[in-house]
């Protein structure tokens, strides 16, 4: 794609805008393998910052990292009926290795419950061996028919946590605790306002008793499932003989949970915060929080301006601000501005000969509140002192903009089929209605609108006056959220 070609505007074709900006912001590229992507350094650095933040949150709550094999015996996958039926269309299978046909096919990891719980069965004998709280950062393969960079690819990166507990109460507590960790991480680091809730039986993870989800709204008013946490009951423990001797001497099966988020979160970040100039990276995740651009007209001005730019860079780095000096000679300042805006760097600092003389710098925000000026001319000392608070203000503003947008396009109290279908087939958004729990109603919504039941919202996200009538007729047993989704 030509570098000077105008970016498709979001309100003209949001899908085309997304596909273009992921490539042009150098987040990722298509690989020679169908449906797989290459994550480029800028995109991978964002993922590393996500990884570091979430990894620390998990370790702070007692979880440990480990690593399990990529290849899983087919017989393991087939032990849990619901699990294999749910994943069978997406499996990639190795049948030949070392020039010989394998005695048993090996599945390339779509998820690791079967492998991990088979290992836990070796390690657990007594209640004293529990709980096991293990997470792994890994890649998985799911053979997707329709792919889109970050949102749905054949191979992607993720973390998957798997735990074993002595009681069901502990497993449920773990499942819900992780859900709140995910919500905090998404809101505080990515700026994604999240609705948490329970998936319907038709939408839950294959092999789970319950699936809890984090649902977030993109700018085109479609939902994106940003993370899930599953209460697995004893399904996998029974299949893999994960038993322990309880404190009173009885032999019991362990209770399990599993949970994960993926590189899809980068796509969520792009679709939530991006604009017609490019992506917007929240300051806490930005590989470069401040880019310093020296501006000069001739070789006489260059040495002093570039030297000052590197002095500012050193001071920012010593203050814990991730900065970079763009002193490339072959690009004009305007071209540099365009590139860094496209890549979503939160702040730009400009320094030229006049700024040197007056002891000031120019700060330019990538995003700002409506009543703010985008550009500020500040004394050098003031700019350096205030810069961290500027970054935090940008972080907060991104979350608030996304939260306000979600609320603007959330429709509560919808109690007729006509209104539900009109919204889902029209402007879209989150639609709250009553539901009887009848899966036929769920299927009818899907067939007539393409929308799905995103979740049965947790208490914090329910309406003040819960609906009493099911959207399909009859009495409502619960309130639910519908939306079209990625």
Instruction: Find the CATH superfamily of the largest domain.
Output: Bira Bifunctional Protein, Domain 2
- CATH topology (level 3) name of the largest domain: BirA Bifunctional Protein, domain 2
Find the structural class using helix and strand composition.
alpha+beta
Question: CATH first level of the largest domain: which class?
Answer: Alpha Beta
Strand order of the largest sheet: 3-7-8-14-11-10-9-22-23-21-20
Average residue pLDDT: 95
Q: Write down the Rg.
A: 25 Å
Q: What is the straight-line distance between the termini?
A: 25 Å
Strand element count: 23
The portion of residues assigned to helices is: 25-40%
Number of helices: 14
CATH architecture of the largest domain: 2-Layer Sandwich
Strand fraction: 25-35%
Provide the low-confidence segments as ranges. none
Shape: globular
Largest sheet: 11 strands, mixed
Q: What count of structural domains?
A: 3
Notes on the structure:
This protein is α+β, with helices and mostly antiparallel strands and 486 residues long. It has three domains: 14-273, 2-Layer Sandwich (BirA Bifunctional Protein, domain 2), CATH 3.30.930.10; 290-389, 3-Layer(aba) Sandwich (Rossmann fold); 410-483, 2-Layer Sandwich (Translation Initiation Factor IF3), CATH 3.30.110. The chain is 36% helix and 26% strand. The protein contains 14 helices and 23 strands. It has helices at residues 14-24, 41-60, 74-79, 81-87, 113-123, 168-190, 235-239, 264-273, 302-318, 333-342, 353-358, 380-408, 417-424, 439-449, and strands at residues 28-30, 37-39, 64-65, 71-73, 93-97, 100-108, 132-141, 155-165, 195-198, 210-217, 223-233, 243-245, 251-253, 255-262, 290-294, 323-325, 347-351, 360-365, 375-379, 410-411, 430-435, 452-457, 478-483. An eleven-stranded mixed sheet has the order 3-7-8-14-11-10-9-22-23-21-20, with helices on both faces. A five-stranded mixed sheet has the order 16-15-17-18-19, with helices on both faces. Strands 4-6-5 form a three-stranded antiparallel sheet. Helix 2 packs across helix 6 (168-190). The protein is globular, with a radius of gyration of 25 Å.
């Amino acid at each position: 794609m030509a570098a000077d070609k105008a970016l498709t505007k979001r309100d003209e074709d949001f899908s085309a805008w997304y596909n273009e900006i992921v490539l042009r912001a150098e987040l990722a590229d298509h690989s020679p393998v169908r449906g797989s992507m290459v994550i480029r350094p800028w995109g991978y650095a964002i993922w590393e910052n996500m990884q570091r933040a979430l990894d620390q949150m998990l370790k702070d709550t007692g979880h440990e990292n480990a690593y399990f094999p990529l290849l899983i015996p087919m017989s393991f996958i087939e032990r849990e009926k619901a699990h294999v039926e749910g994943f069978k269309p997406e499996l990639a299978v190795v049948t030949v290795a070392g020039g010989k046909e394998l005695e048993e096919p090996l599945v390339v990891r779509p998820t690791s419950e079967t492998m991990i719980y088979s290992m836990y069965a070796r390690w657990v004998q007594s209640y004293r061996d529990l709980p096991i709280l293990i997470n792994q950062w890994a890649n998985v393969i799911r053979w997707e028919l329709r792919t889109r960079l970050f949102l749905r690819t054949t191979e992607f990166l993720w973390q998957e946590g798997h735990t074993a507990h002595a009681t069901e109460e502990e497993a449920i507590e773990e499942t819900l605790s992780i859900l709140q960790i995910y919500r905090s991480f998404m809101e505080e680091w990515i700026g994604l306002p999240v609705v948490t809730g329970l998936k319907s039986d038709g939408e839950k993870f294959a092999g789970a008793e319950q699936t809890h989800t984090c649902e977030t709204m993109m700018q085109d008013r479609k939902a994106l499932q940003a993370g899930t946490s599953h209460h697995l009951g004893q399904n996998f423990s029974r299949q893999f003989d994960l038993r322990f001797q309880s404190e009173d001497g009885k032999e019991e099966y362990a209770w399990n949970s599993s949970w994960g988020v993926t590189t899809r979160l980068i796509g969520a970040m792009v679709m939530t915060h991006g604009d017609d100039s490019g992506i917007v990276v929240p300051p806490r995740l930005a590989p470069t929080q401040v880019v310093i651009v020296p501006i000069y007209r001739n070789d006489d001005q260059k040495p002093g301006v570039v030297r000052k730019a590197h002095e500012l860079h050193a001071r920012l780095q010593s203050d814990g601000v991730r900065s970079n000096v763009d002193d490339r000679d072959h690009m004009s300042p305007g071209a540099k501005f365009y590139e860094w805006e496209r890549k979503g760097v939160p702040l730009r600092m400009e320094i030229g000969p006049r700024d040197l003389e007056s002891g000031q710098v120019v700060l330019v925000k990538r995003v700002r509140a409506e009543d703010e000026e985008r550009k500020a001319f500040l004394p050098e000392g003031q700019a350096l002192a205030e810069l961290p608070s500027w970054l935090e203000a940008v972080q907060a503003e991104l979350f608030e903009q996304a939260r306000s947008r979600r609320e603007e396009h959330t429709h509560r109290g919808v109690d007729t089929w006509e209104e539900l279908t009109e919204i889902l087939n029209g402007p879209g958004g989150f639609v709250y209605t009553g539901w009887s729990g009848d899966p036929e109603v769920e299927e009818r919504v899907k067939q007539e609108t393409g929308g799905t039941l995103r979740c049965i919202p947790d208490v914090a996200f329910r309406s003040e006056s819960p609906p009493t009538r099911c959207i399909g007729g009859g009495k409502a047993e619960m309130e639910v959220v519908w939306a079209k989704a990625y």
